Amino acid sequence: QVQFVESGGGSVQPGESLRLSCRASGWSFTIYRMGWYRQSPGHEREMVATMISDGSTNYADFVEGRFTISRDMDRNAVYLEMNNLKPEDTAVYYCYANGDYGRGTQVTVSA
Asked: pLDDT of 9-22, one tens digit each?
């Protein structure tokens, strides 16, 4: 059974940082693609950043160098370091692993 443990969301002011963490279980092998998606009210879920098992990364254009994704392949864990957060980054952030999503963690950026 696939399970996710997500943490790290919260409320911050513009310009501050947060680090999201996620560990996925239920796979007996290294997960091929892990990453983070987000969804804000009235918008569709969108990709933020992903990393495949060879270390290649993909970032959404809106990241603009502010976020860094990393993984612990042995633990099937994925992290997202978010710097210089903006109000438009406010959303529920979902851990992603090979087509499955976690329950999400709320990130709120406001003055």
From this structure: 999 999 999 999 99
